Amino acid sequence: MDVLRPALININGRMYRRNIIQEEHYEEEEDVSYTGPPACLESEDLAEDETCDTISIEQTDNGYRCAIDVPSVLYKYIIGKKGETRKRLEFDTKTSINIPKLGVEGQIVITGSHKAAVSSAVTRVEVLVDSFRKKQPFTHFLSFPLNDPKIQEGFLSFKDEVLQQCSQDNGVEGSIFQNPAKLHLTIGTLALLNETEVRKACEHLQECQNFIRDITEGNRLPLEVTGIEYMNDDPAMVDVLYVKVNVKDRSDKLQVIADRLVEHFVAAGLMVREWDRVKLHATVMNTLFRKDSAVEDTGGPKRQTTSEREAFDARSILKKFGAYRFGGCELNSILLSQRYSADCSGYYTSAGSANFS
Question: What is the pTM (predicted TM-score) of this model?
């Protein structure tokens, strides 16, 4: 990072510069002193009489007070090793920071004699939280389910034919095929760290239902799942093979819905934008599955661990099955799916949904 042009962080509509810090790794301790970086992230300095209008700071008999919602899994980054991070925050801002106990969801309460001091402390805590939130593994993702029986049947036929005709090709074997019950399109991933955040995401998904129905005119979207492509540059060394999904009338309705969903959730601070537009694809083969059948493909190649992966030669598959027709279905919902889960159908457990019709 260019020290003369530090990265900017957008937190609740406010922009802050992020200064470089040296992060260290600590082993978790048994008491309430959690691990974390030895110093806080610095935000822009506030003038003595300057506070941000978006921060709700109330005046009390003893000064000023502000309560902010922070998931309990992030408390340790505000406390730091042996409480060093919190101590520095309190010393630098001349405030007191009260944090709930381990595993207890609640609010972090910041108090101080001056409103600007409390505002500064809140800003620093939010910047710190934002930094470490981005390092949390995602827990949920928006998905278009493609586990329709007809598509599952087409996928299983594809798998059988590939194994019969191409199993002699390097790296091609049964373990790298997707679970047919979990065929899907991923729209975007979210790290929802407590039930409050899950409810918030569900509420936002319900808000999206209005524009979704405007686009679909209140009807299901007939889809066709046809043709395969690969993600690597070399077809002889492929890690991910996916099937293309299109609306039957060749309209861009599905693409528009996907892009607007991402736009909405990014604006709400629940998702990080990774691409200019969503790439509509459904994975059918992934070398991540070779090492661990529990691994899930819920996004593009940027999210996938590449260490110790054994690629496969997809040249014959692409030549013989490049235009393979997996089938069609009528899409009627977008789901907030929970990672590493399954419902009675074998698909991911849904925390919320929005319907097309």
Answer: 0.78
